[in-house]
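User: Hand in any protein.

Assistant:
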Amino acid sequence: MERTVINTQGKDSGRKVKLNDGVFAIEPNEHAIYLDVKQYLANQRQGTHKVKARAEVSRTTKKHHKQKGTGGARYGSLKGPLHRGGGTAFGPEPRDYGFKLNKKVKVLARRSALSMKVKNDQVIVLEDLNFEAPKTKQYAEILKALGLNEKKSVVVVGDTNKNVYLSSRNFEGSKVVTASELSTYQIMNAGTLVLTEGSIERIENVLSQK
């Protein structure tokens, strides 16, 4: 499969790049995508929620009233969950929401997500970006030239590019990631996936060897 390379002015550069069909043109496995996205979101949860149980509440353990003769329920402690200020029964405790996912499933999920984006014509191949200094205005002009200034997008670069990353930080709808960091969630969450020329080979090297 071949895709046209777009320059930073949003025009055809006259070059084409070949995409590996085993990475960008497979039959998408939606369940694998679901599992990988679910794991990603689960890993984002802090799991620090906590309430005090009756054993942890600081209240008197003195019997509130006599056992019989009051016409009320019999109880011996105000720490119970039935009383205002008492402990919570079966409340949340700190926990890790993460779960294990087979590496082959994660690779299949990323291949499926990329293939789905290509199939839906939501992938742009862009020439490599090279900013001499962080320039928000320059990054904004590129997004505008690509028609993405008001759309959600993910720009994938081959190597860590500090200047490009710093230039993109003020754009809530656009995120810059390296090919090695690209996740299934980021692919699916992007309205348009922008792949720089240098990122394609790295993505294929990671996903075609599994």
Notes: The beta strands are 2-6, 12-18, 123-126, 153-157, 174-178, 192-196. The radius of gyration is 27 Å.
